[in-house]
Amino acid sequence: MPCHNVTELMRIVLGPGERLKSYRFLKRTCGGAVGAESLLLERFRGRTAEEILALRGDTFPESSGATSDIEEFLNLKHFFALRAVLEAFAGLVEAGGPDAACTIAGVNYDGDDLIIDAEITLGIVTEMIRSCGHCGGG
Hints:
It is built from four helices and four strands. By secondary structure, the chain is an alpha+beta fold. The protein has a four-stranded antiparallel β-sheet. It is 31% helix and 26% strand. α3 (69-90) crosses α4 (122-132).
């Protein structure tokens, strides 16, 4: 039976200096990974939230190393979802509401780590990908 829930979950762990330690991007319904659950972690680990937010969607795909349209789409999906959570957490966009890509579900601390749990609205993230012009639909 197909799933009609278009919300996905993301957990971001920021270490000291708000540097990315890890993230997980999962489907809400089954807990399955969206592509690989931490597809861009090796690329972004150790970068500050500010550095990640400074990256632009229109130039990211050219440097992503994607070898197929599907891989490029998944890279962009992870990139825009990660940015949406960090933007909402930083107060740069409204977090929540019908037009928000991200709703912050919780913020916790574990020692030196900051853990951000969020819900990602897939349709809005997909629109971000289309508007950047790299999916073939924009």
